[in-house]
Every structure is written in C-alpha cells, then in structure tokens.
Design brief:
Blueprint lengths: L1 E5 L4 H4 L7 E10 L2 H12 L12 E3 L27 H6 L4 E4 L5 H10 L2 E4 L5 H5 L2 E8 L8 E15 L6 H6 L9
Parallel strand pairs: 1-2, 2-3, 3-4, 4-5
Antiparallel strand pairs: 2-7, 5-7, 6-7
Amino acid sequence: MQYTLNTPLTKDKLQNLKAGDYVCLSGTIYSARDAAHLRMHQALAESEALPIPLSDAAIYYMGPTPARASHPLGSAGPTTSSRMDKYTPELLDLGVSAVIGKGRRADYITDSLVKNHGVYFAAVGGAGALLSQCITESNVIAYEDLGTEAVRQLTVKDFPMIVIIDSSGNNLYDEVYSKIPPELLE
C-alpha cells in the first residue's frame, strides 16, 4: 500500500502501516546521528531537557553535505541505523514514534517499536541528492559544534520512505531474507 502522512506521527496514524508499505511524509522531522544521540543520552542521564520535542516525533539518521545555492542543504541520504540502536529504546519510551534510516536493526529495537507502537522507516541509501529535494527547510537547533551531526529541524514535503518494521513487529528485511535460497547466502 501507499500512504501519505503528515507529522506529528501519532500512534493512530502508524497502526495501519505494514512492513513493505510506501509512505510519503510531509511536515517536521529531526535529524540526529551518532554524536547527537550520545549527547541526548547524556542529557537525559543528567535530567536535562532535550533539544527536540519527543512526543510523536520522527528522527532521521542523516548528516547532510553542505548546502548548495538556493537549497536548504546538500545531499541528505540516510546513515546506517544500527549505530543508533543503543539509544533508540530510550527515545521511543519517551515518545518518539518513528525513526528513519537504512539497514537492519537489533531484535531489541523491534521489541521496543512494538512496545511503543512505533515504526522504523527506510529512506533509500544512495539517493541522498534526490531525498534532499524533498527537504524544503533545514535549521540547526542543537549541538552546532558537531557539524554535519548537529541536530536539525527539517521541513519535508512528500519525503519517500518504506516501512521496514511496523508497530506489530513485522520486519520487511527478515521477510525478504527468509526467501533467499540458502545456497545464495554462503
């Protein structure tokens, strides 16, 4: 199925999505990568406020290239999501409803998504230049010293994604992987 969604990504908007569905997303999302996730984790450990609202938020694992003339940023492809695995359950427990990246996730991420009725989306790796065309505004809102890993508030329009892990725990990567003949996996 194909869906068009707008942020915020409330649980009721996500509950009907199934692994393999296509989604075009519009609204506000936040970018954060490894270093920003570590800082947010440290802030939470010290009972400090986070730089982004977590309720029904979507976090995109992305570090853009420099902006070109008349564009809010350069290439905006996803980074490998597993690097954020150790921080993801905490953010999901605090209200984040969706994460966007690429690649497989640990089993405990699936468990946390199910527990919190969240969704893991994949943006197409290698298509960063095309994805950046869906980003209409980009503002650094925290950790500017991290450069490309600073937290950004992004405004997206028809940002294309695929549901990889749905709120019921169905995992598109696992489904596809299970259909590959064993002799091809050696």
